[in-house]
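Before a colleague's protein record goes any further, I have to sign it off. What it holds is a sequence and that sequence's fold in token form. My question to you is simply how this chain folds and whether the tokens agree. Thanks in advance; the entry in question is below:
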Amino acid sequence: MTDKGMFNDSVAVNIPLKSDDDTEANINNDPPAYQNPHLNFNNGWKDLGFAIVFAIHIIVVIVVGLVLGLPIVLQHMKQISLEKPFRLSADFDIKPFAYSLSGAAAVGGLLSFLTLFALQLCAGHFIKCSFFILIMMQILLGVALFFVFPPLCVIPGVFIFFTLIFISCVRKRITFAEAHLQAGCASLRSHPSLVLVAVLMLIVEFLWFIFWCLMFMGVIRALNIDLTTNKVNMTSNQTQPATIYGLSTKT
């Protein structure tokens, strides 16, 4: 009876369909997902609401800037040209300006590339040096304020105090930041096209700044016109005769 009961019990056995060798081969051949990421746009935008709001924001800024702000700038430029016409003297030469701008651009580009290599070699020293320069600038500011008005030395002293607290909190993470900076600089060196992308983004940021300024000027001008119109209407209403309970009065 015991043997019969043992044979009646069901036993589940899991038989692997792949051998251990196949698993090891897949691990060696196929890297994990985080090492070889793939972007999938088949499912559409995941942040569709944010994309719609951002697009509306861009359209509003550009339209308001062009409709309200651009006429103000054109009118102002026209007034300046009528009052003080721009004249170039016979001795004016544009070559020095062109040479100076070209030289500044060349020096700036060279320093940027040197900074890129320096950050990849010793980013941690750069971070420590920036902290040291910041503290020294605050100390020099405190010394200068001492000769101007001694109580003002408290302001840079407070900044130095909080700067030292910040440095004491992040000093153990300088190595971590150094590793990230080195990785970023290495990727930038391995993909030089990112430099062109950065330059294009600077142009986009500059245009965005221009449109924002135009929109700001246009909105301020429109609000000033509305406020002025309301004040004129209020003053005109006060000077008109008013009838109160059958009595004609003037205020």
Q: What stands out?
A: Strands lie at 241-244, 247-250. Residues 95-148 form the longest helix (54 residues).
